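Submission sheet (multi-component)
Chains listed below:
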Amino acid sequence: MKKYSFSKAAGQGSSYLVLILASIVFMIPFIAMLFNAFKPESEILGYPPTFFPSEITLDNFKAIIENDSMHLFSSLFNSIFIATVRTAITVYLSALWGYALSKLKFRGSKAIFYMVLSAMMIPTAVILLPLYQEMVWFKLNGKLLSQIIVINGTTSYAVFIMKQFIDTIPNDIIEAGRIDGCSEFRVFHNIILPLIKNAISTVAIIVFLYIWNDFLWPYMMIDDPNKYTITVAMQFLNGRNFIRYGQLMAATGISILPIVIIYIIFQKRFTQGISMSGAKE
Amino acid sequence: MQQKRTGISFLIVSMGSLILLYGVFFLFPIIYGAVGSFTNWHPLKKMFHFIWLDNYIELLSDKLFWKSVGTTMSFTAVCTVITTFLGLVLAVLICNTKRFKSFFKTFIYMPYITAIMSVAIIWRWIFMAQGGLINNILAVFGQQGLDWLNSSSTVMPSLMIMTIWHDVGFALILYIAGICEIPPTLYEAARIDGANSFQLFKKITLPMLSGTTALVVVSNIITYVQVYDQVMALTKGGPGDASYTATYYLFDKALGFYRFGYASATAIVLLLIILGLSMLQLRLSRNR
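Outcome: structure written.
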């Protein structure tokens, strides 16, 4: 018995050891980025190499803020704008569609649902080229609106999560509302929406994260540097080798700061949203 | 009567908007892309004439395409196996510990929420031949450094390392959720029968997680067959064509030369490969 608990303690100890090592490995790029962002340029590429900054300077950040030739801040603003608007629209529509597909009985609802789900399996490359052509027809190429009105696999994922949540709402609650004379619109707005707050925040996080990190679609559509999203701006920065490394690291830090802040505030929703996809097996 | 009418108008508004948006931005593009793969489609010159199988013939006889498919397949295989395995091991370890669970989870998951385009800048520095992090660490142990991103033998392993670092958190979270759903009574019963930890893992944990594993593997395959951002950010297909992936090949033709018809044919072939792989995987996991 004693031997068993000893081996168990040893097992716990080695688990911690492995996990601490893993955490360090996964965090080191971020830590190194932070340290480099606060180092003077001479130290980053100097010899012998240092990991910790020997002196802390804000020069890199100052240089970025004073000379926004990288379009860093306008891109941040564009990304926040696009991601916020499209997230709001996606949340509302996916709830609306999820409710109709879950609680209204009509012919073809299953077929529509499967069509929606199939959008998650199709590679984006198949869709993006015709989508580009459509935007040329609609005269939306180069406009930020082209980033907002489209749907994709993430929209379908949102509909899926909403439907899963609404499936668990008892029909009695909806019937009671209908008997009281509520129209379907009022049932949806006044009864359903307040009941699915968890689903709403989960979907909001997933959609926001996707749009924030999406690269190809804005890269295809947007030519004007003033309309770059943050990923496109980072791509052009990455190709410019003459920019100083310290400034690049500071810019990278600024570019991931918003999503890290959102992640730390809404941590639970992030992980819940990801594991929702495993809920239905 | 009133009731019924609002029901119908609600249905028209909700399903009407769904069908409109999915029709315009999903169904029509698929059909247009499939048809376009048989044409010389050029989006800006307004060309869309049928050249039938010419795109497919050119594509299937292009050595670079097959090389890029091979590169993509090995990338997909290595990254899928390693991220899934690491995600499982780390999830089991985290579930076995009592304290700091959420710290470990937060740290390992953090890379997954950041854009590849942003973190690639950090990794460019990590992989640098002179003064890069990896070579500096190697130098401490007296090892010769490598030119990670500029030599054709190390460029794909470098991209794999960055991708695995970025994506382990995804598998981790799914596995943690899966492990939580295993009823503890199963373990207790097996312990009473004298099973050791390894047997518990092999006979209970792994089989109970088969659904999660299938999900992780299929989503990873779908993601990695389409790998693009990493290549675009770090190597642009180089050195030479050592890191050309299929999707990079596709968008090189599409955005570099505006050969949308040809790129669509590439996309259709990719789609068939993805469908084939997903079905193969499902069949394999069912037979088990």
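Remark: The domain at 37-287 of chain B is CATH 1.10.3720.10 (MetI-like fold).
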